[in-house]
Specification:
Length: 737
């Protein structure tokens, strides 16, 4: 065994010499706080164990040297590491300015240290502002940087800092396959990326079976049993300090109500940390019999505490990363770790806006035991990292290479999917039917109700209220949280006031109708109203082909012809709410009469009513039916019969459909010359029958500069219902375009 070990070391030495590393590789490890030391320590032990290959210099800065945070540099000394340099870099304060000043102070002090050490490579961990100062200094002084845990996605300013360090770093050690893909997508050279796993897992996966009862007793008391206590660790979110302080208050209130022994660790050095400590003291946490508040727990003991806890709660990366190795239940609060890969042990409460929601999560998670997760490592990270360090060729230029692969999405469970799905009540008032649906945030129609549209105002409004009330009641059983009511209706609508100004002839007694007030009063929900064409455009913008498109037009081809225009991501209503009445663009001065009273409108040619009119003419002249078609005596002739006849070879039916498609195409050409959109979406039951003719007309009639426009058929089954839902979902979730 000794022979083979020596042989392996000799081969590694030969590799280092081949790569130009004739001397020992001088590695500088800089650690800023207790969290990054838990990841860096295993690497430091590995480097120290191979003195024939490496020289280790340790630089300590940041909160390690602050008494309020436990003077955690002492645990580095206890691990028998020689600290080469101590840098006091933290500017005390409770706001963002103090963080910036701390970075500046570190940048002032670090050059002298690096000039003296002259390391071949600096190892930097994570996403802290201190680490950004380290990476910036090393990069500007042409020192190679190895970044640990790059490519991960979490939340807040941490993402920006982590990715900024990635761009400064020359080599990358990542923990998961997705993180590796993110690094590749961020243009990093695949040859300089090592998928090693998290170094802390090398210690975690062998730690659980050690004596833990003495550790639990020391930190939580003699009477506490395994799986019967909680570990809480919550940090301020620097991009929204006030909200994170409020969330911490709610968390403490929920923990007090839950009435279990709880170990609360002080937060990181960040803007807002002192305010969080004040909240703890205001609520008497340090003197509460159920709580133990501590500044620091040595990592070896912390591992034992979370491994045998009934639950961990907070927003620390430790909760979503390391704790999964033990299957301990975790409640992740807020957005600080949004995007992190997690095991099934993690329950997210991203919108932790009430004590009850956090308390409910505690009841769901406490005391469970999940399968152990190895998403972040298999316990062999350090040997891989040491081998990677030895393979670094110091003769290679510092300049980086770039490439552009795709990024994989990450999906994890959220408490809102357990408690309730945010949804809208969607109402569609058509010429024939009245439909109400429960529509989820993702555009899924959870349940739909359909009735014939009554002929009178009183009956119609009464039916809307009845159907909406029933749907709202059903939504509770379906775990859907109704955020509001969106209404799509034909005619001219004032969306600001929720009033139907003028109706189409298809809906009687429907002018000067205030829809918002009676429905809002009855259901106690906000109500939005818009024209059905505009709603179709909104549906495309949120759920369909128009998603992410700056300028596009939607045309609805159904009983009538309608549409909506989105310009610079905004829906256009016009000065008198009459914009996008696309069905009434005139394409012929002496064309057939339209329901609007004019002649030659697109609607007079291409609507379902127009096709029905032409089908009746053919039927009356006994020219409609061809071989393969039959009609019952009482059956009403419709546009569907005309389309069927055209498909079966009826040349007159084909000619009528071609004329209708040409009229629609001419209208589209006029739209292209007026609005110059990049996309035209044809929606409705007739869209697929018109799309090819419309494209042909554009190629024949349009200016060359607009001929390249995309014309597509909508893939949305219910654009009016989805558009009405988007009125609610966009506003109530503050996604206002």
């Amino acid at each position: 065994e000794l022979y083979f070990k020596n042989l392996s070391k000799q081969k590694q030495k030969e590799v280092m010499e081949k790569n130009g590393n004739n001397h020992k590789l001088r590695v500088c490890v800089a650690t800023c706080n207790r969290a990054d030391y838990s990841k860096l320590a295993p690497i430091m032990f590995g480097i120290k164990a191979e003195p024939q290959f490496f020289e280790l210099d340790v630089v300590v800065l940041g909160s390690h040297l602050i008494d309020d945070y436990g003077n955690t540099y002492r645990m580095i000394e206890q691990d028998d590491f020689d600290i080469h340099t101590r840098l006091h870099t933290i500017v005390r304060g409770e706001d963002e300015a103090a963080m910036v000043e701390s970075v500046g102070l570190a940048l002032v002090k670090l050059p002298d240290v690096l000039n003296r050490l002259k390391p071949d490579i600096m190892i930097v961990h994570g996403d802290r502002f201190d680490a950004l100062a380290l990476a910036t200094s090393a990069a500007l002084m042409n020192i190679r940087i190895l970044h640990i845990e790059g490519g991960e996605v979490s939340g807040t300013i941490d993402d920006s800092i982590r990715h900024a360090i990635t761009k400064l770093a020359h080599y990358h050690v990542c923990c998961t396959r997705s993180a590796e893909q993110h690094l590749i997508a961020m243009c990093e050279d695949h040859d300089r990326i090592l998928l090693a796993g998290c170094p802390s897992y090398d210690k975690l996966l062998s730690a659980k079976n050690k004596d833990y009862m003495s550790v639990i007793r020391v930190w939580l008391g003699e009477d506490v049993k395994p799986r019967d206590y909680i570990v809480a660790l919550q940090h301020p979110v620097t991009t929204d300090i006030k909200h994170s302080i409020k969330m911490f208050e709610l968390t403490l209130d929920a923990l007090i109500s839950f009435n279990k022994r709880t170990l609360v660790l002080f937060p990181n050095v960040d803007a807002g940390d002192k305010e969080m400590v004040r909240v703890m003291r205001k609520k008497g946490i340090e003197h509460h019999p159920n709580f133990r508040a501590v500044k620091h727990v040595p990592f070896d003991q912390f591992i034992q505490l979370v491994a045998h806890a009934g639950c961990m709660i907070g927003n620390s990366s430790c909760g979503v990363r390391e704790v999964g190795a033990f299957g301990t239940p975790v409640i992740n609060l807020g957005t600080r770790q949004t995007g992190r890969e997690t095991g099934e042990n993690v329950l997210h409460v991203r919108d932790a806006d009430t004590q009850d929601k956090i308390l409910h999560a505690l009841k769901l998670q406490f005391g469970k035991q999940y399968p152990c997760s190895k998403i972040y490592g298999d316990g062999n990270a350090v040997p891989r990292i040491l081998k990677f360090l030895k393979s670094i060729n110091l003769k290679e230029p510092l300049q980086k290479k770039f490439c552009f692969p795709p990024v994989k999405d990450n999906i994890s469970q959220d408490i809102d999917h357990i408690l309730e799905t945010q949804s809208a009540l969607s109402v569609d008032l058509g010429g024939t039917n009245l439909r109400v649906a429960i529509v989820s945030m993702k555009g899924e129609i959870v349940k739909k109700y359909t009735q014939l549209n009554p002929k009178t105002y009183e009956d119609r409004l009464g039916l809307i209220l009845k159907m909406c009330t029933e749907a709202a009641s059903e939504a509770v059983k379906l775990n859907c949280r109704i955020l509001g009511v969106g209404i799509s209706t034909g005619g001219r609508v004032n969306p600001r006031e929720g009033i139907v100004l003028h109706s189409t002839k298809l809906i009687q007694e429907w002018s000067s109708v205030d829809l918002r007030t009676p429905i809002s009063d009855a259901l106690h929900l906000p109500v939005w109203v818009d024209n059905d064409g505009n709603c179709a455009a909104l549906a495309e913008r949120k759920f369909g082909h128009g998603k992410g498109i700056e300028n596009f037009v939607t045309l609805i081809t159904g009983t009538g012809i309608g549409g909506g225009i989105v310009h610079q991501h905004e829906l256009i209503h016009g000065s008198s709410f009459c914009a996008a009445e696309l069905g009434h663009i005139v394409v012929s001065l002496d064309g057939p009469e339209c329901l609007c009273g004019s002649q030659g409108c697109i609607e007079a040619y291409a609507s379902g009513i127009a096709l029905q009119r032409e089908a009746k003419k053919l039927h009356d002249a006994d020219l409609l039916l061809v071989e393969g078609m039959s009609m019952k005596k009482e059956e009403v002739v419709s546009a569907a019969h005309l389309i069927q006849a055209a498909k079966l070879g009826n040349t007159k039916a084909e000619s009528i459909l071609r004329t209708a498609g040409t009229a629609l195409g001419l209208g589209v050409v006029n739209i292209l010359h007026t609005m110059n959109p990049s996309l035209v979406i044809l929606s409705g039951v007739l869209a697929s029958h018109y799309v090819n003719t419309v494209k042909d007309v554009i190629q024949r009639q349009a200016l060359s500069s607009v001929k390249t426009v995309d014309v597509v058929v909508s893939n949305l089954a219910d654009p009016a219902l989805l558009g009405a839902a988007s009125l609610v979902l966009d506003y109530t979730t503050r996604r206002i375009y």
